[in-house]
Amino acid sequence: MGANRIKAVVWDVDDTIFDYGRADLDGMRAHLAVEGLLEAHGGEEAALARWKTVSGTHWRRFVAGETDFEGHRRDRVREFLGAPLTEAQAAAWWDRYVTHYESAWSLFPDAADTLAAVAGLCRQAVLSNASLLVQERKLTTLGVRDHFENVVCAVELGIAKPEAGAFLHVCEALGLAPAEVAYVGDDREVDGVGARDAGLRSVWVDRDGTRGPAPEGVERITGLAELPALLTGQTRFGARSTFG
């Protein structure tokens, strides 16, 4: 991976250290039950599958710059309900959902120990495509905010991953060259390829191990517990350490 020593690890948050997928579906399940909407959408399984599809569509629109952060939330609600809600109505429905979603927040089981282990090796920061208000609150609630020197988010930055500028901004905030920084995220293209193309050491977290081989120049792990050994070179392949 080159001669530069890795001096910082920058993390994605959702579906990397925070179990967003589970919290989202558990929160929506509870919300739809309270709203009396499970049967209106063909039952629980169909309703949650539809919500996941709609959410993915509008999240990709946000990442592509086709809408803003709050707008993508309102559009998720409108499409899911199939109703031309006003901005206030869509926002109110979203806020009711968020109450249930936040009650389901949790880290992945391997996250806390890995963050503590990496803290003993180097500096840490966050680069997320969400908003600073959301991620600061989430990381604080989950008890891991103190691990990170910087929390950089796309909404405030005005640039979203996979744009190189997002990755380069967090490197600049740390005062490090891209080659001195490792980025860890769950999205093969947005995180893995994006970080690689920006010149960072790229580590892709493929938790279920079913999303195919890693792109060239991207390292693949199936759990966060693998990360410290990977970065210190203590792997079964005997790779030389670039960490320090």
TrEMBL record:
Sorted alphabetically, which InterPro entries does this protein's record hold?
A: HAD-like_hydrolase, HAD-like_sf, HAD-SF_hydro_IA, HAD_sf
Q: What is the lineage of its organism?
A: Bacteria, Bacillati, Actinomycetota, Actinomycetes, Kitasatosporales
Give the GO terms filed under biological process for this record: small molecule metabolic process
**What cofactor(s) does the depicted protein rely on?**
Mg(2+)
Which controlled-vocabulary keywords does the entry list? Hydrolase, Magnesium
Recorded source organism is Streptomyces odorifer
Q: Does the keyword Magnesium apply?
A: yes
MF terms per GO, please? hydrolase activity
Kindly indicate whether the keyword Methyltransferase belongs to this entry: no
What is the name of this protein? HAD family hydrolase
